[in-house]
Design goal:
Length: 232
Amino acid sequence: MSSAEWETLQRRIVACQRCPRLRTFCQEIAQRKRRAYQEWDYWGHPVPNFGEPDAELLIVGLAPAAHGANRTGRMFTGDRSGDVLYRALYETGFATQPSSVSREDGLRLRNAVITAVVHCAPPQNRPTREEIAACRDFLEQTVRLLPRLQGVVALGAIAFAECLRLFRQRRWWTAPQTPKFAHGLLLHSPGAPFLLASYHPSQQNTFTGRLTPVMLREVFARAASLLHQPLE
């Protein structure tokens, strides 16, 4: 894999026009803006992956937030979900700083890449099945271009379902039963990357206490530990 292939994928993601509903919504939000961000020049395009392709860990979210990544152009950047996620990544060694406010804030990931099931912000944070399917090959290509991949953390039930589909496709998980999504669930077959599930760090989950900072930190601490274990 060359860096040129990774950059080509990134450009293809940003230029994607497959889902008219999502493209219209992102552009409308970029024009209307939120009062607190009137001075911002919103990104308003599909949001590319964040991180470098030599990483061993892939983190998969659902989709950019309308006034978060759709505004800043970087995954989980500029919203409360990102505040919780990057704090956990920093505390477990996967990020160089605990906050993420813009593409120019100096944040770098360590040994990790962040992507999403859908690369455009969807209305009400709910992409349709058709929109998820339209974006699916970007996740497949992202995984293909990570030669050192050893594990995946799926944030939320939809991300977990998409990752499980990919694991079955690659024969990384061949058990006939379909595991039920649960926070902390770990799937790991000998000689294959692991799949670790977490509740999504959405405001709905963090405000209600369904997902606490400690719970999320424990997920990434476990991922870090698994990365340092030799794959059988």
